[in-house]
Design goal:
With 94 residues, the chain is mostly beta strands. It contains 1 helix and 7 strands. The strands form 2 sheets. A 4-stranded antiparallel β-sheet has the order 3-2-5-6, with no helix packed on it. Strands 4-1-7 form a 3-stranded mixed β-sheet, with no helix packed on it. The N and C termini lie far apart (61 Å).
């Protein structure tokens, strides 16, 4: 039982990164966007949100969705944090 407690404590020590991905024009969430943070990958859920536990450090982040231009940036994660990524649509409805 003590080993399980130690594993849980170690996992809790990693910062959690929450990424909200939204349409830059409509401000609506974008589900199923792909998020790449160095070797970590995930997708947003129906609310346009993805969460990752990552070691503290500096990372290149890439967010992509087939209907939007690719977003690239560098972020530093030292503790739990939330970021919002605004994707520009490839086609704008006039």
């Amino acid at each position: 039982m003590k080993y399980i407690s130690l594993i849980c404590v170690a996992k809790l020590g990693m910062p959690r990164l929450r990424v909200h991905v939204i349409d830059a024009i409509s401000r609506e969430p974008i589900p199923d966007a792909e998020i790449y943070i160095n070797t970590y990958t995930t997708r947003t859920d129906a609310r346009g949100v993805a969460e990752l536990d990552v070691p503290a450090g500096t990372y290149d982040i890439v967010v992509r969705h087939r209907k939007y231009f690719v977003y690239r940036d560098t972020i530093t994660v030292m503790r739990d944090m939330e970021i919002t990524v605004e994707l520009e649509p490839v086609f704008k409805i006039l």
